[in-house]
């Protein structure tokens, strides 16, 4: 039915009974007259051979014919309209010709022609000259030049012949009626169809004649004309056609400036609000529907030169709300060329200032970089010197410790030697006394008595022994205390000779002090294993452990209390733990669990801390809502990102259409959690956003403190003592299982 959108929407709201009545009425509807009937009548009005008296009789029914045509165009089906506009009937051409004929007397000075004024005929002849001889201004843009050329071509075609006196008189009779207004209504009815609108757009004279209808005295006609022209201007290519039509209007009506008559009517028709609203709406569309800013400013200047802005300032307080809206729309979209120029100049000055400041900043940055490089070089040199001094200090300390150890060893050996020497000094008088007593006894007994009392084997044994003191173990009974003293002499005397040769054993001890072989330590109770990463003996050199003596520390520690505190527990609690696990498993048997038990348990603890549902957590992750999910919870949740195996299990469970209610709460959460797009990246982004300010505030002082802290740690004696204690206790705990170590990595 080719209804406009508002009418179609209204028609859809009818009930089915009403729609059926409309269909029946449409079928009963009979077209009153075919299209060629109206075309023949309009052509008869245009016949120049008809006498004035006969034309007067015919023209009495012209308005009636046009009204019937307008009703037919508006109410008949689209097939009737297409037949009216087809190439055989050419109804649009006939309608445009009649419109041109009806307003012919308005454009020409009919009174002057009737009185025979030659000046009027000269004016009439000037309309017939070709507008193509006019040179378009070179300063105008391409669209404006094209529209002017098109207007020129149409004007040449339209006004190549002069109308006769009889035609002008007949036109005057028509212009005194409403034929122009009804013709515009007919054109509007045609333009309501897309097919008719395209024909009007492509017609060489239709838009020109519609624009010339602004000369009609009826304000309703002028408002209707402006509405049609605004509709043409809004379609693609329509703006160019409208400008060409007003170029033609300027030439035909002898305007000094384009849109001059339009502005004159706009100022003079201040009593007709509908016309003023239509006029203001048309000006808004013509000026502000152009994309090219330069061409838009040019059109704006045309209306400004004709006094539009002054008139709008006077009329902006009108009582008509529609007119106020159109006026305000124009003022809001108008380009302030002076302001734009001033802004451009200000921008250029600002850009120059910015360039100057950037250059200045560049120089300052270069100087700053030079100073930073110089300071960094000085700092590096000082650090290098400091490291060298520290190495020298460490070397001196190491030499001092080695020397101290050697001195201690030598002092101990000297002390032992002195003690042995003193014991020898105490035993020498006793030995001399015993020797004298033995000599006296032998002298009293005599050698013959000794030989008689001994067997031959004993005599053979005694024969090679040169010293007579060897026979001392066999004195007579009255002297029992005498035999024991001689044995100490051989035992005590031999240690004295090795004293001068003790130096080699000291050097060996000193040379092996760094890698002494440590003996396993046996503990009273089983102790837990101390988990550390042990250093090999050949890795100790150059580390802090080369200076530590953990065996010495063990002497000062209460190891019995240490074993009591850290001995392994009995097996009873383990049985309780197994029972508790069995009970927990029995309680959770009613729910299906796809996750690993410990992982599900830890996830449940983490979710309880949040106090949010699974849907709220996933929604917050989608929107990066750190107010709903604190950053510490996000970091905890990142440890539970679903693995591929877990996702596969959850998807399989879901594909099998098993009830989700039977899943444990942790599994249901993991199912929703795994469906979040780009989950890993979202979680990492949330953690980064949440920790950004804290990291920024934390890293700056930390970085500044790293060098000082590193130097302090390296030179800390208490740290060495602490590591020494840890090494001693670790060896004490691990010695029976893993053996003693000489150092360990701090990362363990």
Automatic annotation (TrEMBL):
It comes from the Eukaryota. Residues 448-497 are annotated as: Disordered. GO terms for cellular component: cytosol. SUPFAM superfamilies: ARM repeat (SSF48371), Formin homology 2 domain (FH2 domain) (SSF101447). Residues 464-497 have a biased composition (Pro residues). PROSITE patterns: FH2, GBD_FH3. Residues 347-420 form a coiled coil. One of its GO terms (biological process) is cell migration. Keywords: Coiled coil. SMART domains: Drf_FH3 (SM01139), Drf_GBD (SM01140), FH2 (SM00498). Residues 1-428 form the GBD/FH3 domain. GO terms for molecular function: actin filament binding; small GTPase binding. Residues 517-748 form the FH2 domain. It holds the Pfam family Drf_GBD. Belongs to the formin homology family. This is Formin-like protein 3. It comes from Physeter macrocephalus (Sperm whale).
């Amino acid at each position: 039915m080719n209804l406009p959108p508002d009418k179609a929407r209204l028609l859809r709201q009818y009930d089915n009974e009403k729609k059926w009545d409309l269909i029946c009425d449409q079928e009963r509807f009979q077209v009153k007259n075919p299209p060629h009937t109206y075309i023949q009548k309009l052509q008869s009005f245009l016949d120049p051979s008809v006498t004035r008296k006969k034309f007067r009789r015919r023209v009495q029914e012209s308005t009636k014919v046009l009204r019937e045509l307008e009703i037919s165009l508006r109410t008949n089906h689209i097939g009737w309209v297409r037949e009216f506009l087809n190439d055989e009937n050419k109804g649009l051409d006939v309608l445009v010709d009649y419109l041109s004929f009806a307003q012919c007397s308005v454009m020409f000075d009919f009174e002057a022609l009737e009185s025979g004024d030659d000046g009027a005929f000269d004016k009439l002849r000037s309309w017939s000259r070709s507008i193509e001889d006019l040179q378009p201004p070179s300063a105008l843009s391409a669209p404006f030049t094209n529209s002017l050329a098109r207007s020129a071509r149409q004007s040449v075609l339209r006004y190549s012949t002069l109308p006769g006196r009889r035609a002008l008189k007949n036109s005057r009779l028509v212009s005194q009626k409403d034929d122009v207004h009804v013709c515009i209504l007919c054109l509007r009815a045609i333009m309501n169809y897309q097919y008719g609108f395209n024909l009007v757009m492509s017609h060489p004279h239709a838009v020109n004649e519609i624009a010339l209808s602004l000369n009609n005295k009826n304000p309703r006609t002028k408002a209707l004309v402006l509405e049609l022209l605004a509709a043409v201007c809004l379609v693609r290519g329509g703006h160019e056609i409208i400008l060409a039509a007003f170029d033609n209007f300027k030439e035909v009506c002898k305007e000094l400036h384009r849109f001059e008559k339009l502005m004159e009517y706009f100022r003079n028709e201040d009593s007709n609000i509908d016309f003023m609203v239509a006029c203001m709406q048309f000006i808004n569309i013509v000026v502000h529907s152009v994309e090219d800013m330069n061409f838009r400013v040019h059109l704006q200047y045309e209306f400004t030169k004709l006094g539009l802005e002054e008139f709008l300032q006077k009329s902006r307080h009108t009582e008509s709300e529609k007119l106020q809206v159109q006026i305000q729309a124009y003022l809001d979209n108008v380009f302030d060329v002076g302001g734009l120029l001033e802004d451009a100049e200000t921008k250029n000055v600002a850009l120059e200032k910015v360039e100057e400041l950037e250059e200045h900043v560049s120089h300052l940055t270069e100087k700053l970089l030079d100073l930073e490089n110089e300071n960094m070089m000085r700092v590096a040199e000082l650090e290098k010197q400091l490291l060298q001094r520290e190495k020298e200090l460490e070397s001196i300390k190491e030499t001092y410790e080695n020397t101290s150890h050697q001195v201690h060893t030598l002092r101990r050996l000297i002390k032992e030697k002195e003690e042995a020497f003193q014991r020898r000094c105490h035993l020498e008088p006793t030995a001399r006394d015993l020797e004298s007593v033995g000599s006296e006894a032998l002298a009293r007994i005599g050698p013959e008595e000794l030989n008689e009392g001994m067997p031959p084997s004993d005599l053979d044994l005694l024969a090679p022994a040169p010293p007579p003191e060897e026979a001392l173990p066999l004195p007579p009974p009255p002297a029992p205390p005498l035999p024991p003293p001689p044995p100490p002499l051989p035992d005590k005397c031999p240690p004295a000779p090795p004293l001068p040769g003790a130096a080699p054993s000291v050097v060996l001890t000193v040379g092996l002090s760094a890698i002494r072989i440590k003996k396993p330590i046996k503990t009273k109770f089983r102790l837990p294993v101390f988990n550390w990463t042990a250093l090999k003996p050949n890795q100790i050199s150059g580390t802090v452990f080369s200076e530590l003596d953990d065996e010495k520390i063990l002497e000062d520690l209460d190891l019995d209390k240490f074993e009591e505190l850290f001995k392994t527990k009995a097996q009873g609690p383990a049985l309780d733990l197994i029972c508790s696990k069995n009970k927990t498993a029995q309680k959770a048997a009613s729910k299906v669990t796809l996750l690993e038990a410990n992982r599900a348990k830890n996830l449940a603890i983490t979710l309880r801390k949040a106090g949010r549902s699974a849907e709220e957590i996933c929604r917050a992750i989608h929107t990066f809502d750190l107010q709903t999910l604190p950053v510490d919870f996000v970091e905890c949740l990142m440890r539970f990102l679903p693995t591929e195996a877990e996702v596969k299990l959850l998807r399989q469970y879901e594909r099998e259409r098993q009830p989700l209610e039977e899943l444990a709460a942790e599994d249901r959460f993991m199912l929703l959690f795994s469906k979040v797009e780009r989950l890993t990246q979202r979680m990492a982004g949330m953690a980064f956003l949440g920790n950004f300010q804290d990291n920024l505030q934390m890293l700056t002082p930390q970085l500044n403190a790293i060098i000082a802290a590193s130097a302090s740690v390296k030179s800390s004696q208490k740290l060495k003592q602490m590591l020494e204690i840890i090494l001693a206790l670790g060896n004490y705990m691990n010695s029976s299982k893993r053996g003693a170590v000489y150092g360990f990595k701090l990362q363990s």
